[in-house]
What does this fold into?
Amino acid sequence: MGKIVITGASSEIGLAIARRLSAMGKPMLLQYNAHAPAYEGAELVQADFSKREDLERFISALQDDVEILVNAAALTSTGLLPQMEDEEIERMLQVNVLAATLLCKAVIPRMCLKRCGVIVNISSATATKVYRGQSVYGGSKAYLEAFTKGLAAEYAKKGLRCNCVAPGSINSGSMQKLIIRTGRDDLQEVNASHTFGTPEDVAAAVAFLCSEDSRYINGAVLHVDGGYWLGL
It folds into this structure.
């Protein structure tokens, strides 16, 4: 039975994805950075993807039976480019871009041999609608969306499906910090629904893309943002 690998599983979104995909009844491997997720019934592996040696150690520990890969690990940092430290930029690109890229590189050959595999990359609404201070973060997520489409084009004939989920105003993690600084009402105005989504909304989208119900969907970006494009 193929394994489900989820990175960034200690985040609220990552943990919600793990709980939702557990219904598939497959063995699971969950990566986390600083704090182990409160989740039982899965193999937990600590790895700081901003450190190349940790990333390589995690990749080398992967077995050849990965059937589903969800790249949910991400580092969010905002600021005008000249004001950002070089180390801060490097860490964000290491986690958001390089880690996801090398993980896909590691699992794709075996998926091709089995002619079966699903990759879901977690992008962001900022990949297509970027505000001040999000140039690097938004750029890293835009790369992930283009990368996803490229993989779909290259490996669809081998039985692989690769799609993106792009969350918008999800009430978790960095969004909760932004609510404190900016105010809930102002942030709710950025999408048509004037509400926040939940990590479970993102998890439901991921679960759909991992299921047979989406067998004819490949190279897509599924926006889970409450109508972010239609907001103010």
The chain has seven helices and seven strands.
